[in-house]
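@channel sequence for tomorrow's demo:
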Amino acid sequence: MIGLDNYNFSGKKALIRVDFNVPFVDGQVGDDTRIQAALPSIKKILADGGSVILMSHLGRPKGKDAKLTLAPVAKHLDGLIENDVLFVQDCIGDEVKTAASNLKAGQVLLLENLRFYAEETAGDKAFAEQLASLADVYVNDAFGTAHRAHASTTIVAASFPNDKVAGYLLEKEIISIKKVLEEGKSPVLAIVGGAKVSSKLSILENLVEKVDEIIIGGGMAFTFLKSLGYAVGKSLIEDDLLPVATQFLASAKAKNVKIHLPMDVVCNTEFSNEGAITTKDVSEMADNEMGLDVGPNSSDLFDEAINRANTILWNGPMGVFEMSNFAEGTIRIAKSVANRTDSGAFSVVGGGDSVTAVNKFKLSHKVSHVSTGGGAMLECIEGKILPGIEALN
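structure tokens (generated this afternoon):
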């Protein structure tokens, strides 16, 4: 795979797949984190003397939808870089060809929302070839869509057999995940949370082959606790996965991988931020109670594991952190990972809820890497090959 620093863009038109799927507030960009993340790659190409053609999706439109135009993104981007940012109200066709053909070195052109065409998500070859015809070199800097074999993320690369490059952001994502799963300094710790075992089972099965310790929290922990014989009341349980949970714990033990489960939980009789909220040992939960967060003793236990670790991967919250009364377990994890990182550990946080948590608690700058790709990162952790990355090889 070729990186940006190994390619000279002088006199070249670069077609860059970026992820500008950003939230809008009153018709303007509400959070420009993803736009900011693409700036280093854009500036490198412009500094070389090249020009840039940006392509992205926004939302999930069914055909052309004025509410999902990328025009406000072009305006916002224009305020972030010194170079001209042009916008064309389509991504294929004669108007687009003309705009790309007239593009001068140092200029930036943003195409309209790729998903206005169903051919994008279908991975249509003819659509991809129309995109490819606009430029001399293809750059993928959208890790968040690298797990999709879409026209702009995978199929288009075939038109650039010797001129396809990984952007800085994509390269950083790959290096960070590899540093955890393949090159991690021991002890390597994985922290896995979230609601259901079924959504994280393949992740756990891959991690147990690669790490030294695993913390399991969130609603998924109760299936494991029940498999050990605990009565967990009305907590979220996947009864059909109880045998799988038992087998997983036995497999981890055989591989000398330490599994840490909650020893106390914050309970309520209803799924609400109000009510009869108590903290109990997992062996003392009543039949009418459900666990909605890990308790302080569990957090202490998890802190000890984190403080031992030299490499940390965190995916998934410890409880229903959106509710203030059940946020403490996730806050403790976030602070502990940040503190351990400050002491020299390498840490990666990924997955929508985990990223939301570190951003909410203003700790994202205190971990080594916050992944921009939810689904893409999960598939990497599962050990899957991402088509968007494979297409660059």
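heads up for whoever presents: DSSP finds 14 helices and 18 strands in the chain.
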